[in-house]
């Protein structure tokens, strides 16, 4: 019998002698083969919606490095697009969306049942991957958490301080809450369809959770995640879920218990030793090597990688970066990190 996949074993709470490993943005611009396939597709969004090419770029880092998990190639902003927002990417700058700041605009969004019309190619990517991935590789589906998705829908773009979303939250709570609810319910439908199409694990990216403080963190990071996780687990019993409330700091403590997540992904604004003693005590953690090491390499990379492995060696751990790998990273440094994790 083939042993169960290592990522699934870690997610079920097992401490493994060598942590399984994958990397946020592992299919991305630092890889020449990714840049070639993106050029073939035309642009980033065309690549996301071309199931064959999206599956191809998902597989590229698996072929090159043998990661233990493949993450669906898509983007958290496809869901707002499926809900009716305009979405495009400005070269060298990032995403742009039509903005949503009024109750009328929230009410004009499409009903959650209609998102599958736009998102069908994403489910097809997952079906291709379920057939083509090596038997030992876990397939991860994902979505943005409601707060993070809302920050882009309200501002129409990324921002350093999420100021527009905070302003709406603080001045028109009814509209803001209605938007969070629409995203929450649509996210359940989207992720549930991903699982039906072959995703074995779900990851919820709350990249801007760190800017929610106090009660706001509870109301708009914890509660929507808890609602999504409860609904998904009711439909798909036993489905493992990774939550990533990036830069949550003390908010990481108790986050798994409060949301029902099986694993909490940790960014590199906290040390691995702190996360081991405050977060890993209650279950699996993922993380948290600083992505900068993929640019700089050398002995610092070896030392920092060993430090992460050793800090988390006493409990269930999935090795990853603290955030996505950047386009200026050197592919050789990724191999070096993997060799240190697997070879000691
Ligand atoms: O991790 C993976 O390899 C899976 C694919 C994936 C992408 N985006 C591909 C992508 C995932 C999981 C995401 C999530 C995502 N997208 C997040 C949450 C995680 C995080 O990084 O904090 C956010 C906030 C987005 C929104 C988004 N997409 C932004 C802000 C940008 C522009 C910034 C940038 O890096 O250029 C994107 C574009 C994007 N998404 C790229 C990739 C590979 C680069 C696009 C390109 O090829 O030109």
Number of alpha- plus pi-helical segments: 16
Structural class: alpha/beta
Whole-number tally of structural domains = 1
| First-residue to last-residue Cα separation | 28 Å
CATH topology heading: TIM Barrel
Unique bound compounds: coproporphyrinogen III
Can you identify the CATH class? Alpha Beta
- Shape field: globular
**Count of DSSP E strands?**
9
Low-confidence stretches: none
- Residue-averaged pLDDT: 97
What is the share of helical residues? 40-55%
* Main sheet record: 7 strands, parallel
Tell me what you see in this structure.
By secondary structure, the chain is α/β, with parallel strands linked by helices. It has a single domain, classed as TIM Barrel. The protein is 50% helix and 12% strand. The protein has helices spanning 6-11, 32-41, 44-49, 51-65, 78-82, 103-107, 115-132, 146-155, 163-171, 173-196, 214-235, 255-259, 272-278, 293-296, 298-311, 331-343; strands spanning 69-71, 87-90, 94-97, 138-144, 201-206, 241-245, 263-265, 284-289, 317-321. The strands form two sheets. The protein has a seven-stranded parallel beta sheet with strand order 1-4-5-6-7-8-9. The protein has a two-stranded antiparallel sheet with strand order 2-3. α7 (115-132) runs parallel beside α10. The longest helix has 24 residues, at 173-196. The mean pLDDT is 97.
